[in-house]
Each structure stands twice: as structure tokens, then as C-alpha cells.
Amino acid sequence: MFYIHCPYCGETREEEEFHPKGQAHIARPEDPDACSDEEWGDYLFFRDNPRGIHHELWVHAVGCRKFFNVTRHTVTYEILETYKMGEQPTFTADGGEGHPEGRPSSDAADQAPLREGVRA
């Protein structure tokens, strides 16, 4: 069982209180009416499925009901961080296969100690 830290409640709770909602940081097209059917289909249905670091959107369904982002390693299931909507992740894939463990992004490295992680 995972224990996930909600960045809004400030509590670390059991995984059953949360629900994953897919890939994080997906930008909606600025003018959906101007999109072709193929572009709109890509936006709606196609997501990354990397082996390694992945940013996901989750909701604290049984708690505060707020959406937040989780950085998770898809091979080990380790949750590296949780952060509020609108914030940038501390950990990035940094080239994908070259760094499967992930590395802190250079601009957020100073904030890493301030973020509460998750215990697995």
C-alpha cells in the first residue's frame, strides 16, 4: 500500500483515498474549433506511457477533493513528490532513458527540501 502526501491538506494518507486521473501538464488547444479531427483526437486520447519518471494528475477524492500532481517512477511505483496544480515538478526524466531515476530540474533544485515526499 502507498501513502500519499496531499499538498493541500498537508496530510499523508492511504492510497485508497486518492484516484489517478491521467497524465499531468496536458495543455488544452487554445482554439478547439480550429483543430483538425486528428489534432483533437491526439489531445483527447493519446498520452505518454514512459518507463521511468512520469507526472500524473491525482485527486484526493475522500479528503479535500482537490486535484494535484504526482511524480511517480512507473517501474518501481515509487512516488518521488507531490505538488500543487500550477507548480512545476522538481524531478524530471531529463532525457528519458538516459536517466531513469530522474534528476531534480535545475530551477527547482533549491526547493526540493521544502516539498514533502511520500512513503511507500
From TrEMBL:
Region (Disordered): 86-120
Domain of life where this protein originates: Bacteria
UniProt keyword list: Oxidoreductase
MF GO annotations: sarcosine oxidase activity
The keyword Cell wall biogenesis/degradation appears for this protein: no
InterPro entries linked: SoxD, SoxD_sf
GO biological process, one term: tetrahydrofolate metabolic process
Family annotation (Pfam families): SoxD
Keyword ATP-binding appears in the UniProt entry: no
Enzyme class: oxidoreductase
EC number: 1.5.3.1
This protein's name: Sarcosine oxidase subunit delta
Organism: Halomonas organivorans
